[in-house]
Amino acid sequence: MPLAPHQLGTYFALTEAVSLLQHAVEQQLRAEGDLSLIQFGLLARLSEAHRLTMTELADGVVYSRSGLTYQAGLLEKAGLVTREPSPDDERATLVTITPAGLERVQRVLPGHVEIVERMLFSQLTEEDTAALGGIMTRVRDHMRSAPPRSSIRKRKARDSR
């Protein structure tokens, strides 16, 4: 069944707004911190949790595990994270943010916040923000109700044996 015209319009407005915001944020992150958007996302998650497994990071930022391994390697080379085997699970790798990684997040965060405020929130009232937050939380939770991508791959690999 095709989307109704108003649904299609909403979908296109959403994807365009997200693309424009991500592009502006990516430019700011590159200029102020020599980071990609995904690298910033990884560092931001780690700055809150301090240490996560690669699988937790991949599921949290919705990124492939192979892509995440590459990005974590770049961050490790830059001295922003460390990686080590988990003492609790020999299959897991723990990623820990370093003091330099925390500093980098703190350096780029003000510009990041300024862009998000200017491009997104400056156009919304408090009521708009609350409504949009509720709607997007509901949509995100629905999308995340499926098993994490990492567990789907593990299950497929296990079932194919």
Automatic annotation (TrEMBL):
Protein name: MarR family transcriptional regulator
Superkingdom per UniProt: Bacteria
Signal peptide start-end: none
Naturally occurring in which organism (per UniProt): Paractinoplanes deccanensis
Residues of the HTH marR-type domain: 1-141
Entries under Pfam families matching the protein: MarR_2
SUPFAM superfamilies: Winged helix' DNA-binding domain
Ranges where the record places region Disordered: 142-161
SMART domains, alphabetized: HTH_MARR
Residue spans of biased composition, Basic residues class: 151-161
InterPro entries the UniProt entry points to: HTH_MarR-typ, MarR/SlyA-like, WH-like_DNA-bd_sf, WH_DNA-bd_sf
